[in-house]
Write a structure and sequence with these properties.
75% helix, globular
């Protein structure tokens, strides 16, 4: 309800594209967290990068590693402003968020295990 006591209309609610942009931003944040946790884990010898392409990039140059990790979701986020999202793109973004939530869960798991045994 608004101040005047009127019910909010659907015009004031977020659109599907707004929710999708929010989801893209969430994906960007998850990728950034993944990059930081991965760097920390590799740097201190707790984990290794599972993706062979990202492992090669990490070993070659850490700055490029961060750039790649952050640039892909940032590019997707930017494209969402200019393109009409298709049904398949929505599924892809939701699937990517689900995968990154799982990856972040793994990172949290090994951080808890490591701190428990230090």
């Amino acid at each position: 309800m608004t101040r005047s006591g009127e019910m909010e209309t659907t015009k004031t609610l977020p659109t599907s594209k707004d929710r999708l942009l929010n989801t893209c931003f969430l994906l960007f944040c998850l990728c950034l967290i993944d990059a930081v946790f991965t760097d920390f884990g590799i740097r201190y010898g707790h984990i290794s990068e599972s993706n062979p392409i990202m492992r090669y990039i990490y070993e070659a140059n850490i700055v490029i590693f961060y750039f790649v990790k952050i640039s892909l979701p940032a590019l997707l986020f930017t494209l969402m402003h200019f393109c009409k999202p298709s049904k398949y793109l929505r599924y892809f973004i939701v699937a990517a968020v689900a995968v990154y939530v799982f990856v972040i869960s793994l990172h949290i798991y090994w951080i808890v295990i490591i701190t428990a045994f230090i």
